[in-house]
Amino acid sequence: MRDEEKDQRVRPGRLRLALGALSGVLAGFAALAVAELVAAGVRPQSGPVVAVGGASIDATPAAVKDWAIRHFGTDDKLVLQLGILAVLTVLALALGALAVRWRRTGAVGVLLMGAVGAAAAAGRPDSTGLIDTLPSVVGALAGALLLYALTGRLTAARRPAASERAAECGEAAECGEAAAGPLVSESWDRRGFVLAAASAAAASAVVGAVGRTLNAEQGRDAVASRDRVVLPQAGSPARPVPRRSAPRVPGISPFTTPNSSFYRVDTALVVPKVDATAWRLRVHGKGVRRPADYSFDDLLRRELIERDITLTCVSNEVGGPYVGNARWTGVRLADLLTECGVRPPSRGGPADQLVARSVDGMTLGSPVEDVMDGRDALLALGMNGEPLPFEHGFPVRMVVPGLYGFVSACKWIEDIELTTFDAYDPYWVKRGWARRAPVKTQSRIDTPKPFARPRAGTVMIAGVAWAQHRGIDRVEVRVDDGPWQEAHLAAEDTPDTWRQWSLPWQAASGGHTLTVRATDRTGTVQTSRRTGTIPDGAGGWHSVVVTVD
């Protein structure tokens, strides 16, 4: 036998390997498409990409999460999902190439990938049980069968006829081994493979599109319920924002952050769309003498209050963008708790932690003393004059001034349990973040931007400073290593909102470093010690480098 014939027995040709890899990709595409369709009959969060993505977020170390938020911002979830799809593509390519020689092994590999998705779906905090595994299981079965079928088209072979062998060899004695051996022919079913692959790709595209459409339609009732919401006039409206609360300096952040620009940092790969007519909030736990269950209409019928409150994410680095100010409408959380018989620890209450649970399984823990000490802690229903946007927690979320969001700002809230810090660690505490996290005194330079090139002369330096629930008393700016200069503070709205500031600077040509620091109403000066966001928020002064032309 010729050497090339022996090699042909041992391994398939390069073309068949390439088409085998393509078969793997098509099988993976089919698996995801079928899973998307099945998820439409279960719930969107049960899909394998979402389930594996959620499990990946849960297992990711806090430092890595913080890095992702810092570099990708609100696109971190998109980057994660693209990363998962990239890994799945590589695995599918490898399994497809493997299946050219070992069809069953390749198909089993697809099933194992489905098992990973099923395990991730079943293990999610908001899992509804084994039914959540169906999208991954059914999708993997479809993918495995398709891979087995497609690679079958590539491995089909015929044994050369005797006349063909004789013509090749000349003498039968010289070709005895070839005549007896089951030579693998390269005349595999090319046309059949092309037709099968094209049909599979088209069918998968249709199935996936139908699945996405059905999943999108599942939120129609929630969208309709939000469209019907008319927020009543607040019994305790917010006072008008002072006219001088925002200096007229180009480049400074607006005093009120539009809903579309408000930062979003959470772990939800699929934004929950909750039907307000079916939503319920349960209040129970330690020291709750009268457990209660509230509907959305129950909250609307209560006296609503309206307050301007600045929220800050603990992942916000010094000078970072994850801070925003909005006008929130809702009910006083302290009043609700008092009606349920809850007392703060300072008045003998046995619970010192309020655990808020979201519909997606997220848990946040707030100090009971803080939410009942008289501050405007809210169950918010509205944001800047309209019902909460879905990405910001519709139908109801928590807002507690003075605390970082990871210990207070539960979105899509559905459960409040009173317990103790010793008895329960919420989601972020289990991952190395602090149990108690009051917002630190911080300030930021909005203009000029880093590496800007302003012209020599008068340049306005301006920005924002915040110390929620304490208020800002003073902001100072330093140019290079010069003395601190007190900036002009805009009018204060409330101690729970950020405060804008500005300083005219006589800029001289050359490179300069501008630095800002704030002092809150307790006399605490913003620390110069630079620290990371973990475990309880970043510290340090914000600086920008500019070149004056």
Task: Characterize the structure shown.
- By secondary structure, this protein is of the alpha+beta class.
- Helix content is 35%, strand content 20%.
- It contains 14 helices and 18 strands.
- Helix 2 (14-42) packs across helix 5, helix 2 runs parallel beside helix 10 (190-217) and helix 3 packs across helix 6.
- The model is unreliable at 1-10 and 161-185 (pLDDT under 50).
Topology of this structure?
Blueprint: H1 3-10, H2 14-42, H3 48-59, H4 62-72, H5 76-99, H6 103-122, H7 134-155, H8 162-169, H9 176-180, H10 190-217, H11 220-228, E1 280-285, E2 292-295, H12 296-301, E3 305-312, E4 323-332, H13 333-339, E5 353-358, E6 363-367, H14 368-371, E7 378-383, E8 386-387, E9 397-399, E10 413-419, E11 442-447, E12 457-466, E13 472-479, E14 485-486, E15 488-489, E16 499-507, E17 510-520, E18 542-548
Parallel strand pairs: 1-10
Antiparallel strand pairs: 1-2, 3-4, 4-7, 5-6, 5-10, 7-8, 7-9, 11-12, 12-16, 13-14, 13-17, 15-16, 17-18
Percentage of residues in helical conformation:
25-40%
Termini separation comes to: 80 Å
Secondary structural class: alpha+beta
**Strand tally:** 18
Radius of gyration: 31 Å
Q: Count up the helices.
A: 14
Shape: globular
